[in-house]
Specification:
Number of helices: 5
Radius of gyration: 17 Å
CATH architecture: Alpha-Beta Complex
Strand content: 15-25%
CATH topology: Lambda Exonuclease, Chain A
Helix content: 25-40%
Number of domains: 1
Largest sheet: 6 strands, mixed
Order of helices and strands: EHHHEEEHEEH
Shape: globular
Distance between the termini: 13 Å
Structural class: alpha/beta
């Protein structure tokens, strides 16, 4: 595959696995601001139309949750790529938790401001493959995958364990590549 690497969420959307009918520019900005505040990344330039109080509340909620669980970050906003497969993505948080059953287990965490969606597991599977490649882990992928949902005021961790998510990711990526080759998407 030549050209720019496809982003994980673009692949999932193009494969038809993501219902983005409820997405708005304001919601996307809000999510970006929450991530920036929670993970210490730069704020977007134009934040005039953002609910900063709500974003700060969610970010603070995540920070309290992370402290409560003894979060030990290894990386935040980790950009990863698989050039031979033609895709890239940015994982929100990678690290361990002191109070989990397996305190040495490596966790890959994504922060979400909305509700649970089936495609979240597929997104995490793609990130886990990227992380395993980056760390030279091979195909064993000893990485726990989870989303911390921030939408209801109390951060909730949901672990995604379904091995089928890796198959769904591979299928989505293959479908995306065919659609791109056939010029059905640009």
């Amino acid at each position: 595959m030549t050209g720019e690497l496809a982003r994980v969420t673009r692949v999932i959307r193009a494969a038809g696995l993501m219902d983005d009918s409820h997405f708005t520019e304001a919601g996307a900005l809000f999510g970006t601001v929450v991530h920036a505040l929670a993970l210490g990344s730069p704020l977007p330039e134009d934040i005039r139309n953002c609910d900063m109080v709500g974003a700060a509340d969610r970010a603070e909620g995540f920070l309290r949750w992370a402290k409560k669980h003894g979060a030990r970050p290894e990386a935040k906003e980790l950009e990863m790529a698989d050039e031979p497969r033609g895709y890239a993505g940015r994982c929100d948080w990678v690290g361990t938790f002191a109070d989990m059953r397996s305190p040495s287990a490596l966790w890959l965490i994504d922060l979400k401001n909305g509700g649970v969606a089936r495609w979240h597991g597929v997104q995490l599977a793609a990130y886990a493959l990227l992380l395993a490649k980056k760390k030279g882990m091979g195909s064993a992928i000893p990485i726990r995958r989870g989303v911390v949902y921030l939408s209801d005021g109390t951060p909730q961790l949901r672990e995604y364990k379904d091995r089928a998510d890796f198959i769904y990711w591979s299928s989505a990526l293959n479908l995306y590549q065919v659609r791109r080759e056939w010029k059905l998407i640009t």
